[in-house]
User: Which sequence fits this backbone?
């Protein structure tokens, strides 16, 4: 029998996803910040209170997708096009579980997300 909790999917982001994704986004940005700077936390304005994701969702030109593992939201892929340029590119995955990153890579979900970006252009 297949373990459905290990299955990944990409779904259109909805407003109700923002509250679940905001702590995941904060953890991902803060982890990256700690790895690459002397700061303990940092990210774009609104990354830690949902304003960033809500802003993208309110933009009709934004591409917003939620990454799911089974029934859990584990990350997001978000960007907006301005002319021929993608701006505000954000791809984050919950850093609190190393299994997400390796499973995402092995399942080619990241490749699919990049394919979605290229297809949207």
Assistant:
């Amino acid at each position: 029998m297949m373990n459905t909790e290990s299955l990944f999917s990409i779904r259109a982001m909805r407003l109700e996803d923002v509250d679940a994704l905001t702590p995941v986004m904060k953890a991902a940005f803060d982890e990256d910040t700690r790895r690459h700077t002397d700061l303990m936390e940092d990210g774009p304005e609104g990354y830690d209170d949902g304003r960033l994701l809500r802003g993208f969702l309110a933009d009709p030109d934004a591409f917003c997708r939620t990454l799911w593992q089974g029934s859990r939201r584990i990350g997001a892929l978000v960007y907006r096009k301005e002319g021929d340029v993608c701006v505000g590119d954000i791809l984050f995955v919950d850093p609190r579980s190393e299994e997400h990153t390796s499973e995402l890579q092995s399942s080619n979900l990241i490749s699919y997300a990049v394919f979605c970006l290229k297809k949207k252009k």
Q: What stands out?
A: The chain has four helices and four strands. The helical segments are 15-36, 51-58, 98-107, 109-120. The chain has a mean pLDDT of 80. Strands lie at 8-12, 62-69, 72-82, 85-93.
